[in-house]
Design a protein that fits this description.
Elements lengths: L2 H31 E5 L13 E6 L4 E3 L13 E3 L8 E5 L6 E8 L4 E5 L2 E4 L2 E2 L2 E10 L22 E10 L5 E6 L12 E2 L4 E5 L21 E2 L3 E11 L18 E2 L2
Length: 263
């Protein structure tokens, strides 16, 4: 073997080692701190769209039963993290079917939550909404699951413009975010009073008439009240977004949503 050959072989080995180490570090970083999440449904429109890709900050609330990568984590409760706040967009594990959901945190432990005519009342006080125009999208199949959007303006036919009324909702801590309306006097636009148990949270989708959230009991497919140990982390920013049924369809990429902050 010549010196040049040995040098070349040595360089290849070092390159392979570097790649392996990089992959290991990347995998460890992902396991410890972040979890990737694709938006599969329209329940969080227009904050999050089908095909948005984001990383969930697993350290935001500390490690819990379902966010911790190690078997040493607690069976209940959390370690290290701060408390979730109203308005946070959170990924959590469904207590019954085990799938991951993403919704907005509305009610804290001890809060009362009620819907009246499509408006949230927290602890008996109305959460104000201000009209903010119309959200428009094309009525077409969206994402890998080929979901069709629901439209306030009725059946528009494939390729038509599907609309929803948009409002800005302001939570008691000052957090502002968009909410959409599809139905007047919808199924859960008027509810009984929910009292959030200690150690639990109440979540709602921003697309209020198209979200199986805490307004629905777990027995009928909703998420109900979510225990603290089922929280995985907070979603802070959209990294990538594709409107097509495959992320490889580059002509469907939404460049204006790349690295977009989640409000």
């Amino acid at each position: 073997m010549t010196k040049n050959t040995a040098k070349a072989d040595g360089g290849l080995v070092e390159t392979i080692k570097t790649v392996v180490y990089a992959l290991l570090i990347s995998g460890l970083f992902r396991t410890l701190f972040f979890q990737p999440f694709w938006i599969p449904s329209g329940s969080m429109k227009d904050t999050l769209l089908i095909g948005d890709f984001l990383f969930v900050n697993k350290m935001a609330y500390g490690y819990s039963r379902y966010s911790c990568p190690f078997s040493l984590c607690p069976i209940s409760g959390r370690i290290l993290g701060s408390e979730p706040e109203r308005g946070d967009v959170v990924v959590f594990r469904h207590p019954v079917n085990g799938t991951d959901f993403i919704k907005r945190l509305i009610g804290l432990p001890g809060d009362t939550v009620q819907m009246k005519n499509g408006v949230v009342f927290l602890n008996g006080t109305e959460v104000p909404q201000k009209a903010a125009g119309i959200f428009e999208e094309i009525y077409e199949k969206q994402g890998p699951m080929a979901n069709l959007p629901r439209c306030e303006n009725g059946s528009v036919g494939e390729g038509g413009i599907c609309t929803s009324s948009r409002s800005v909702e302001t939570l008691p801590n000052g957090v502002k975010h968009n909410v959409l309306n599809i139905d007047d006097n919808g199924f859960v636009d008027n509810t009984d009073v929910f009292t959030v148990p200690p150690g639990h949270y109440f979540f709602m989708g921003d697309n209020r008439d198209n979200s199986q959230d805490s307004r629905f009991d777990q027995a009928v497919g909703g998420v109900g009240f979510i225990p603290a140990e089922y929280l995985i982390g907070r979603a802070d920013r959209v990294i990538f977004s594709s409107a097509g049924q495959s992320m490889l369809y580059f002509w469907t990429w939404r460049a204006d949503r790349f690295f977009k902050a989640i409000e």
